[in-house]
Amino acid sequence: MNYLAPSILAADFTCLGEQVKRLEEAGAHYVHIDVMDGMFVPSISFGMPVIRTLRPCTELKFDVHLMIEEPSRYLEEFAACGADRITVHAEACRHLDRTLDEIRRLGVRASVALNPATDLGMLEYVLPKLDMVLIMTVNPGLGGQKFIPYTKDKIRRLRCMIEEKGLQTDIEVDGGITLENVRGVLEAGANVIVAGSAVFQGDVGKNVKAFLERMGKSYEEKAGK
Ligand code: DX5
Ligand code: ZN
């Protein structure tokens, strides 16, 4: 199944609660929450207080993307403030395996993100522990960037790796996704779509619905599985 996870990094923060409600009404599946620490990526976004405040505003699941160095230091806090899925960057974890175990121990879904230049081989041994892999389709740190075309091949290769291992792991794509290129990444094998500017610029409800319509069939349906 395909899922839409709009990134609130591009939302209007003066009325964040309402914006998230719009996402929910229009049928989005997750709220994608980008946490940046000014170290792993140059910018600083927001953290636990914002997530905690948003939690009672919606029933949508929280897809928390940690762009922070050594996220193991904060996993308990992110779980406590309402994360349903936590994505850590392979490049930011000294002990990735242990970090993933810790996320699972907290009862939260575990996911690993790879920057565009990071090899898929990083995932070889931990893939069975993952609910999802996030393939960055831009370099992390900023909304509104341009999709990097070679990442499509990476998505394809990851989908093959997952199938070869007989797993059902979700593949999320994040960065520069638009109504124009979303079909391409789905066809390559992604099934969780993050979109920031393409959802929050203009009418949020309309944009969500347009994405959902375009996302229609999943790769499984297409492959007749
Ligand atoms: C980039 C973030 C993304 C970003 C997506 O570092 O992880 O989630 O907000 O924004 P758009 O869709 O505008 O590229
Ligand atoms: Zn993100």
Describe this structure in words.
The protein is of the alpha/beta class. It has helices at residues 16-26, 48-54, 75-80, 96-105, 151-164, 182-188, 197-200, 204-215, 219-222, and strands spanning 3-6, 30-36, 61-67, 85-89, 109-114, 132-136, 170-174, 192-195. An eight-stranded parallel β-sheet has the order 1-8-7-6-5-4-3-2. Helix 1 runs parallel beside helix 8. The model has no long low-confidence stretch (mean pLDDT 96). Residues 7, 9-10, 32, 34, 65, 138, 140-145, 174-177, 194-198 line the site of D-xylitol-5-phosphate (DX5).
Question: What can be said about this structure in brief?
Answer:
This protein is an alpha/beta fold and 225 residues long.
Relative strand content: 15-25%
Q: Could you describe the largest sheet, including whether it forms a barrel? A: 8 strands, parallel
**Rg calc:** 16 Å
Count of helical segments? Answer: 9
The average pLDDT score comes to: 96
Indicate the percent of residues in helices: 25-40%
Which distinct ligands sit in these coordinates? Answer: D-xylitol-5-phosphate, zinc ion
In total, the number of strands is 8
Q: Give helix and strand order, one letter per element, not per position.
A: EHEHEHEHEEHEHEHHH
Shape: globular
Q: Any key phrases for this structure?
A:
225 residues, alpha/beta, eight-stranded parallel sheet, 9 helices, 33% helix, binds D-xylitol-5-phosphate, binds zinc ion
